[in-house]
Write a structure and sequence with these properties.
The structure is a single chain. By secondary structure, the protein is of the alpha+beta class. α12 crosses α13 and α27 packs antiparallel against α28. The radius of gyration is 41 Å and the shape is flat. It starts with a helix and ends in a 7-residue tail after the last helix.
Length: 977
């Protein structure tokens, strides 16, 4: 391209610098947002890897690679082949894997043999000692010598020096200095080796991956020097190699997404390479399965995040296209003049393409750094527009991220250059002809694309509905990511389609209002309606941008709040309170001796003991006392066995209330029991015994789950000791109502209850799986033996559980289990997929708001600039400045105001239609409490604030423009630029 064309390009960019800067901003946003996703996915992969390495801390490390040669039949390993495979494993494999090496170990072994003492007076010849001669590389760096020293690398006086594990000395009755005969078959027949024990060792670190075969595997090993093994045994004596192991432990902590597929392919090929170099050599342990798992998780994460971000990225591209279109429209006359004065299409397109390349290069330099910051922000997201200060994921620049950024720039350049190609083909005559036909409907209206998109949205809704029905019928889970990616793509498509549809009918509404009010409307309002109806097409880009921004903002914020709230409520319902403790109760068996005489006297003693326990625990104690007394007086008949009964000693409960950080405590008994209605068994149910006053202080209730306030039902329990609350589905199934009786067998003791309440749900209970029966704990203990209960704790804000456990242990109370709902919530919030969802939705919302705000301001600025002559003519015809201002404000209200209202309305409508499908990602049986769609007023206020700022900014632009308007400058001969 010639220098004059370059000068022309820079002058053009400078003269339209605000449009150029806004296009650059859009490109930077597109690159940053696009590169942040693979960066976050790569960082979250490292977090998953770290977690997997932590979970696999026992046994071999996650990055273990074990290759093994095992002799088969009479086949022998050639020394040349053995050398080749050893060199390949030592030199090539670490390069192919490309990760830091934690441990390397190699051992060779020949066939094991029975040791025979050379001197029967020093070692017990009757002791059976089956040992194996082996060599182990790098042994001296990993051990401490308890006795003796390293074996020599030379065979002296026909003796092969060997060392053993310290434990092997005791197990095999060995001593340092003992000499044994080791019979082995070689190429020349049977040979007798002399082996001398010269030392014993113990590992410096027993947990080191160096001991990959396990210390137990070394108990029967005689470890000799590597040179002796290779030169003497394999080469000189031609003893066949029985077993060879090569072990690597690689550090995978810094693995990147782009390394997964190549490394997986190399490991897949490894078996073939090994077998070709030495037959019967293969990979015994590989970390290829964990790579496959990481690859699947990373791919799933990227698909999810890109699907979530696709609508926002598309909106940024739309902003770039809209901006470029505005710029091209303002320069269309210049393009037509250049074309008519001899400029070729290639030259004109080259100018705009070079401009796109310059801006794209700047965006590629700046965008990834902003993308890095965005990825960090995604990693610190704990909810919608909620970013916490916690250890962020390890985010770095990757080739994949730069590739995505370059692809985003290429798409943006093509989107802005293609219209320039169309304009460059038009001469000044064609340009004037197109101006005369500017009232032609847009392509999407002529081809009814909005109707087609609405049809696709309807089909998507149908598929989601069928999927939910299938999930309800089968109880199957769909995936483990808590959200289905298409549940964000299809709603975004519906917002876009509905926006296009309303833009189709927008001119019709304007014409209808203008026709109805043409005789009585004031002049500014009538002129506004005429202007909008005649040039509605010019307002479509801005209106669609605002509809998309606000619609997606409403939907995404509601989706994030809905996911967050429902998952939190599901966990709170599952636990029922903040902390659940299960203490260890001391119990005594009531088994009676089989001896008739001993049973007669012992029975009375045990019976009275049961009576005392029953009487002391309840209010009247009649049930327990009678049962115990009868047993004591009669006793078992000779030879009979009685059922086992255990008497538990209840720990003091007051200590739980007095614990530091505990706000309230309650006893909660949960056990399965048989339920009888009208003399017929209805199967098992979950009986929950509570103290109503204490339970009201500790339990988590969602008020909308109950016909009345939960405390009213707890008051009913307290008003009558035999009261019981049952689930609604159970009551419907057996036609039960309040006041009916039922019997529950607790500890082989039938207990009568009266129904006082029928409820659909109760904290920690799942009536669709097992019906619940809520009763008074003291009444249950009056009628049946005491059984261990749980302790539910309501904690003070920021109170920790660890001091509670320590305090209870100091008082001699052992805990069988501790469940802390707050830990579960924290773990859930730290899931990479969950953080990615909230981070992408939050950043996407912020980016779309910024883009729409800038797009709105630029659109009105250039719209007003292009209509200076029109305003001057109106002022010259007698329209006052106040009337002109009112007309433009009304125009802004009709376009921006209507778009804002449509965006919020369409966003809420889409939320109500599509958000209920989010629950299909969980097992429907555990979707308790029921799923609900949430709109947070804080998000709505944030949207209103952005909208108000937009409208005020637009109004200020109007006032400034009209204030600077000079009629004598605006009304002139010529054309507006």
């Amino acid at each position: 391209m010639s220098m004059p064309m370059l000068r022309f390009l820079f002058r053009k960019m400078w003269n339209t610098r605000w449009l150029t800067l806004s296009t650059l901003l859009g490109l930077v946003m597109a690159v940053a947002f696009t590169t942040s996703i693979p960066m976050y996915a790569d960082g979250s992969l490292k977090r998953v890897v770290a977690k997997s390495l932590e979970e696999k801390s026992e046994g071999l490390p996650a990055g273990s690679l074990l290759m093994r040669y095992q002799a088969v039949g009479t086949e022998r390993a050639g020394l040349t082949e053995l050398k080749d495979v050893n060199m390949y494993i030592q030199d090539e494999i670490p390069k192919d894997v490309g990760f830091p090496l934690q441990t390397y170990a190699r051992n060779y072994s020949i066939k094991g043999a029975q040791l025979t003492p050379a001197d029967g007076t020093k070692a017990d010849p009757s002791k059976r000692r089956q040992m194996t001669l082996t060599t182990l590389s790098g042994l001296s760096d990993q051990v401490e010598w308890s006795i003796g020293q390293m074996p020599s690398g030379q065979v002296q006086n026909g003796l092969i020096e060997a060392v053993v594990l310290e434990e092997a000395l005791f197990r095999n009755d060995l001593h340092v200095g003992d000499i044994f005969s080791y019979s082995v078959s070689g190429a020349g027949g049977s040979q007798l080796l002399k082996v001398k024990i010269v030392g014993s060792f113990k590992p410096k670190n027993e947990a080191s991956p160096y001991w990959f075969q396990g210390l137990e595997g070394l108990v029967n090993a005689l470890i000799i020097h590597d040179d002796v093994f290779m030169k003497t045994l394999l080469t000189e004596k031609k003893i066949p190699l029985q077993l060879a192991n090569w072990y690597y432990a690689f550090d995978l902590r810094n693995i990147q997404t782009s390394q997964l597929s190549p490394l997986e392919n190399r490991l897949e090929r490894l078996d073939i390479n090994l077998f070709q170099k030495l037959k019967n050599t293969k990979v015994d342990v590989s970390f290829k399965p964990i790579l496959t798992e990481f690859k699947a998780q990373s791919l799933q994460m990227q698909i999810l995040l890109f699907t979530l971000a696709a609508p926002m990225i598309a909106m940024v591209f739309y902003y770039i296209v809209m901006n470029a279109r505005q710029s091209l429209d303002r320069q269309r006359g210049v393009i037509a003049i250049l074309r008519s004065r001899g400029g070729s299409t290639k030259q004109i397109v080259g100018i705009y393409f070079l401009e796109g390349l310059l801006l794209g290069a700047i965006a590629l330099l700046v965008g990834p750094f902003m993308g890095w910051f965005m990825a960090k922000s995604i990693g610190s997201s704990s909810g919608f527009l909620t970013f916490v200060d916690r250890k962020s994921i390890p985010v770095g620049f990757t080739n994949e991220a730069l590739l995505y950024g370059g692809l985003a720039v290429l798409i943006a350049i093509l989107a802005s250059v293609i219209p320039a190609v169309l304009f460059a083909r038009s001469s000044i005559v064609n340009y004037k002809q197109q101006l005369a036909r500017s009232d032609r409907s847009p392509l999407w209206q002529r081809w009814f694309i909005d109707i087609v998109l609405l049809g696709l949205v309807g089909y998507g809704f149908y598929l989601f509905d069928q999927r939910q029905v299938l999930s309800i019928q089968t109880g199957l889970t769909t995936d483990q990511l808590q959200v289905h990616p298409l549940l964000f793509f299809v709603p975004a498509l519906s917002i876009f389609a509905l926006g296009l549809f309303f833009l189709r009918i927008f001119p019709w509404l304007l014409r209808l209002f203008g026709w109805l009010g043409r005789k009585f409307l004031p002049v500014p309002l009538y002129l506004t309606l005429v202007q909008l109806s005649r040039s509605a097409k010019a307002y479509y880009p801005l209106m669609l941008l605002l509809i998309l921004t606000l619609g997606l903002g409403v939907y995404n914020s509601s989706a994030a709040r809905t996911i967050d709230l429902n998952s939190t409520e599901r966990i709170m319902y599952q636990y029922g309170t903040d902390v659940v403790l299960q203490t260890v109760w001391e119990g005594f068996s009531d088994d009676l001796p089989k001896d008739p005489n001993a049973g007669k006297s012992g029975g009375g003693a045990q019976g009275s003991g049961t009576s005392g326990a029953g009487g002391n625990n309840g209010g009247n104690g009649s049930g327990g006392s009678g049962a115990g007394g009868g047993q004591g007086q009669g006793g078992p008949k000779p030879g009979e066995e009685t059922p086992t009964k255990i008497r538990y000693v209840e720990p003091p409960f007051q200590m739980f209330r007095d614990l530091e950080g505990v706000q309230a405590a309650a006893r909660v008994l949960q056990m399965k029991a048989n339920v009888v209605v009208s003399g017929k068994s209805t199967g098992q149910g979950m009986i929950m015994g509570i103290d109503n006053a204490d339970f009201a202080k500790v339990a988590w209730f969602r008020p909308d789950l109950f016909p009345a306030h939960p405390n009213q039902y707890l008051n009913l329990l307290g008003s009558y000791e035999q009261a019981v609350i049952i689930p609604s589905n159970y009551a419907s199934k057996y036609a039960l109502k309040a006041g009916d009786l039922l019997s529950i067998t607790i500890g082989q003791q039938p207990v009568e209850f009266v129904i006082v309440g029928i409820l659909p749900y109760w904290p920690s209970q799942y009536p669709d799986q097992t019906p619940f029966f809520i009763a008074n704990l003291d009444y249950i203990y009056d009628q049946a033996p005491i059984t261990p209960y749980e302790v539910w704790l309501k904690m003070k804000p920021d109170a920790k559980v660890a001091p509670i456990v320590t305090a209870l242990q100091a008082k001699g109370i052992e805990l069988a289990s501790v469940k802390d709902v707050r830990n579960e919530l924290i773990i859930q919030k730290k899931l990479p997929a969950r953080g990615g969802v909230f981070g992408i939705l939050s950043l996407g919302f912020l980016v779309s708001v910024i883009v729409s705000l800038i797009g709105y301001m630029l659109y009105w600025f250039f719209n007003l600039s292009s209509r200076v002559v029109q305003f001057g003519v109106l002022r010259a015809m007698g329209l006052s400045r106040k009337q002109l201002t009112g007309m433009l404000l009304l125009e802004q209200g009709f376009t921006a105001g209507l778009s804002i209202a449509l965006g919020i309305g369409i966003g809420k409508l889409t939320s109500y239609f599509f958000l209920p499908f989010l629950q299909t990602s969980q097992n429907v049986k555990t979707q308790v409490p029921p799923f609900r769609v949430v709109f947070d007023s804080k998000d709505t206020y944030q949207l209103y604030f952005v909208v108000a700022f937009m409208m005020i900014t637009g109004a200020l632009l109007l006032f400034l423009h009209i204030r600077r308007l000079r009629v004598h400058q605006a009304v002139k001969l010529g054309e507006e630029k």
